[in-house]
Amino acid sequence: MLNVIWAAFFILAGLSALKQSFAGNWEIWPELVNSLFASAESGFKIAIGLTGVLCFWLGCLKIAEKSGLTNLLAKALYPLFYRIMPSVPKNSPAFGSMVMNIAANVLGLDNAATPMGLKAMEELQQSNPHKNKASDAQILFMVINSSSVTLIPITILLYRYQMGSANPAAVFIPILLATSVSTLTGFLATVLWQRINIFNRVILAYLIGGGAFIAVVAWGFASLDEAARTKVSYCISNLILFVLVLVFIISGLLRKLNVYELFIEGAKDGFKIAVQIIPYLVAMLVAIGVFRASGGLDYICSGIIWCLEQLGVNTDFVAALPTALMKPLSGSGARAMMLDTFATYGVDSFAGFAASIIQGSTETTFYVLAVYFGAVKISKTGAALPLALLADFAGIGTAIVLAYLFY
Questions:
Q1: pLDDT in tens, 277-331
Q2: What range defines the domain where residue 325 resides?
Q3: How far is CA 292 from CA 183, 239, 318, in A?
Q4: What is the Rg, in whole angstroms, of the alpha carbon atoms belonging to the chain?
Q5: Which residues contact 163 (CB under 8 A, 6 or more apart)?
Q6: Are 164 and 347 in contact (CB under 8 A)?
Q7: How many helices (H) and strands (E) does the chain have?
Q8: Whole-angstrom Cα distance, residue 205 to residue 218?
Q9: What's the pTM value of the predicted model, to 2 decimals?
Q10: What does the DSSP 8-state code read for residue 130?
Q11: Number of folded domains in the chain?
Q12: Residue pLDDT, tens place only, 231-250
C-alpha cells in the first residue's frame, strides 16, 4: 500500500506540473525540484529535532519499566488489551508502553506520546511472527494513534490566543467531540476488520467508561469561563508532564535503582530509533512536499468546491478545506494552512473556527505511519492506512458539522 501511495504522489505531481506547463507556467519545474531538496532537509531536521525528545522520554521510560510502573499501569487496561490484541503475550512490556502513550495523547502531550508509542511498537514487534509485515496488534495501535483522542488541545488554544481571538477556548468542546468520533470510528472499524467481538462485555464496559470520562471532562471544562479554560488547559498539561517525570525518578529511587544509569541506557535506545526513522520520514515528506508544490492539492480543493456547488451544498467551510486536506499528510503543513486561514479570514471567523476544529480532530496519518512502522522496519502495512484514513474522514467530517452547530 505504501509503495503505491508513495509512487502516486510523484506521478500525480508530475501530471499536475505538466498541466501547468501547458498553461504557460514553466516555473513550476524549478519549484518542484526545490521542494524535493527542501522537504528532504525538513525530514532530516524533524528526525534530528525528535532525537533529543526520544532520548529523554525513552530514558524516563527505562526507569519506569525497571521500577515496575509500566506493569502497574498495564494492569489497569490489561483486560481490554488482552481481548483486542490476543496475539500479544500476557507479560509483554508493550502493554505498559501503550497505556502511557495513549495517556500522553489524551492529555495532548505530543512530545511524550511519540517516544512512548515508538517504544510500544518495538515491543509489539517482538511478538510479530512476520517482521516485515504489520501484525493486527500493530495496526490497531497505529490506527488509535493516528486518530488520538485529545482532551486538552493546548497548542490550538494557544495559537488562537496569540492570533488575538476574543474566545480562544470556544473550540474546546467541538474538538473533543470530533476527535472522539475519529478515534471511535478508527477503533470500531479496525476491530471489526480483525473480527474481534465488539459486543464482549469487557470491551463494552471500557468503551462506555471511556465515553463517560470524556463527557465528565467536557462538562467540567464547559463550566469554566473562556479565560479560565485556556489557562487551566495550559497549566494542567504542563503540570502533569513534569509530575510524570518526578514520579518515574522517585519510583526508581524508592526501589534503590541507579536512575541515572537507567536513563542513559534508555536514551541510547532513543538515539538508535531516531536514526532508523530518518529514511522513512524523508521519503514520505518528500513525496508529500512535491505533490503540494505541484498544485495537486489546489486541484483537489477546486474539484471538491465545484462538486459541492453543483449539489447546492453550503460552502462556507471551504475556506478551511486546505487544513482538512493537508492534515493527514503533514502536521506542519496543516498548521500552516490553519494559521493562513486565521490571517486571511480572521481567527474568530467561521473559517477560522472550522479550521481550528479540523486541526484538532485527528492526527497526521502519513507521518505516524512512516515514523511508527519505519522504526521497526515494516514495509507491508496491511489495512493500517485505509483504516486510519477512514478515521480521518470521520473526524474531519464531524469537525465541519460541529463548526456549523457551535459557531
A1: 788 778 877 887 788 788 877 777 777 777 877 777 777 777 788 888 778 877 7
A2: 2-406
A3: 27, 38, 18
A4: 21
A5: 339, 342, 343, 347
A6: yes
A7: 17, 0
A8: 20
A9: 0.74
A10: S
A11: 1
A12: 676 676 667 668 878 988 99
